[in-house]
Hints:
heterodimer; A: mainly beta; four-stranded antiparallel sheet; 11% helix; B: alpha+beta; three-stranded antiparallel sheet
Amino acid sequence: MKKLTFFILVTLFFASKSFAVSEWDVTEIAGSRNASDIDAYSIVNAQAQDRLLIGYRRGMGVNYSSASALSVLTGEIAIPNAAGTVTRYRRLTTTNAPGWAQIDTGAEANSTTYYLYAVGDTDSTEPTFSISASSSAPSGKTYYVKIAQFYNDASGNITNVISYRPDYGADYPDVVKGWVNFTGTGTVTINDQHNVSSITDNGTGDYTINWSTAFSSAYYAISGNAAIGNFVNISSITSSSSRILVYDYNGLQVDSATITLIATGDRI
Amino acid sequence: MKRYLFLFFILICSTAYAEKVRVFTDYKPVRILRLVDKGADFETEAAKADLKGNFKDIDDSAIPTDKADRDFWKFEKGEVTANKASKKEREDLKTKKKADKQSAIQKLKAMGLTDEELATLKIGG
């Protein structure tokens, strides 16, 4: 009898479900479970869900609004604490305009890169926001996610707003890797750019654009435009630079008031 | 004395913040490299653009803003100027080419070609 009892107990032990930590089980918590197992099954399923959603962000793109404010679009976001043990979910239902009133500590500094964080410290359905010079954490906050950065220029104006996105990475093939808008007449002047480290004026209608981060080879694509009646042609391409020539409709090289160039291709 | 000190500081400050460009002087016309990225340096950027040879770093303000003679720019005596001799040589060549073209057209017409026939050869004007 003792042997039978022992055998039954051992069978039950190995027949009972182990509490796996790597899955969400839609059949649990089954009504047949013992009360003592409820906590374990709840935790396993919650952990699986948390693993999926801890970095969630939909929408909440950040744009430039004014020289002293940003614009955060609607969306949802998961905001964990630093240890990742607790995650707060927040939903932004109307566009928000964080500004310098949301700076975490100290005063606004010129010629400084700042970071925008979505914050979940306040017990509400919507996130608040914090601007910090720290790229790792805003001062005094527990629940935060960095969602954008910008540059406060020498005049105290917000510029170069970059909204972080859950993406394939900056090296994904269909992402534009570089662009430039410059003036070719008079003093060659860059009006705006991304990933351009320098420009060379080689002569009339002859320019070389150097990329800050090079492509993996010379086999990337560029497309250019110039002012009415002018055409951009490729002179030569290397992994780190693109040389273009600008012609008019008579086939003569000319300096154009506005020249734009876009480049996309592989960087890895 | 205070006035002279003030003017001195103004002079120093104005030159301190002038943007520098690198002029590669061996090319005809000279090539001018301008940095865009704050972290960029002339040596690295020159290598990217395959710029070689002698160079001078000068203030951007010393580069002419009128680019009418851009194809004749040279670096001489510390500044970028137009090479007038090269410009005249190019203009003389253009004038000669134009005259040669007209001469050839006249000779072809003398051989009996009509204006329409010359047009089919994309000759004329």
